[in-house]
Write a structure and sequence with these properties.
hypothetical protein PF0899 fold; flat; 3 domains; four-stranded mixed β-sheet; alpha+beta
């Protein structure tokens, strides 16, 4: 998020502020990390502006209540959730990391205002063009969706994938997963297997069942989005 400021895309003052905050965070993080990773933390610390001869005798960082900002923390959680959701949708559809996609955020007035102010971060880190509409706006069809703090974010799939081919591929994948899942469930419902198989083997099959269920749910969700 801070890279544009470091690379001089803002004012000199903004760049200096970003550098100062990064230095503060890294220096004190290294001091906290030192007891667990002494040599590496010392080496990096020595390359940073600092006072004293060694990180080993540096003052232990102290919490400053005045620097605590619950509102900023909540904002960051919201932005991170939105970025993570868009990235996950991109991953589900195997969209090339370098391809910019269009996303639509359906938000209440309060969230809409926050998104307008900070959309550049989402667009930068999720590689998207973000369109923000109110609750009365129409939701895109044939789109994946994610939710961040009550805001629905859609990834329209038209133009990104061949919808007919993707439907066929997902239906085939769903049938394949379902076939394996049924075999695992049949095994787990067999009393002889449960009684005679070692506990670790039974547990392995139960984990396999849970993984297959998650995979099937993800495929079914993508299918439902394409059929809307």
């Amino acid at each position: 998020m801070i890279k544009p400021r470091l690379y001089g895309k803002g004012s000199k003052e903004s760049r200096k502020t970003a550098q100062t905050v990064l230095h503060h965070a890294l220096l004190h993080t290294l001091e906290l990390l030192h007891p667990f990773m002494p040599f590496l933390s010392e080496e990096i610390w020595q390359h940073l502006p600092h006072t004293g001869e060694s990180i080993m005798i540096a003052t232990w960082p102290a919490a400053d209540a005045e620097q605590s900002d619950a509102e900023s923390e909540a904002l960051m959680e919201f932005l991170m959730e939105a970025i993570r959701g868009i990235r996950n949708m991109r991953g589900e559809m195997k969209i090339h990391p370098g391809k910019t996609v269009r996303c639509v955020a359906v938000a209440a007035p309060e969230e809409s205002e926050v998104l307008q102010r900070h959309s550049s971060y989402i667009q930068l880190l999720a590689d998207c063009e973000l369109e923000i509409v109110g609750r009365e706006g129409s939701k895109p069809k044939q789109a994946l969706s994610t939710v961040a703090r009550g805001t629905e974010i859609y990834l329209p799939l038209a133009g990104l994938v061949d919808l007919d081919k993707e439907l066929a591929r997902l239906e085939k994948e769903e049938r394949s997963i379902d076939g394996v899942l049924q075999r695992v469930r049949k095994k787990l419902s067999n009393e002889d297997f449960l009684a005679k198989a070692p506990p670790e083997v039974v547990e392995k099959e139960r984990k396999k069942e849970a993984e297959l269920e998650r995979a099937k749910d993800a495929v079914s969700r993508r299918l439902a989005a394409l059929k809307l």
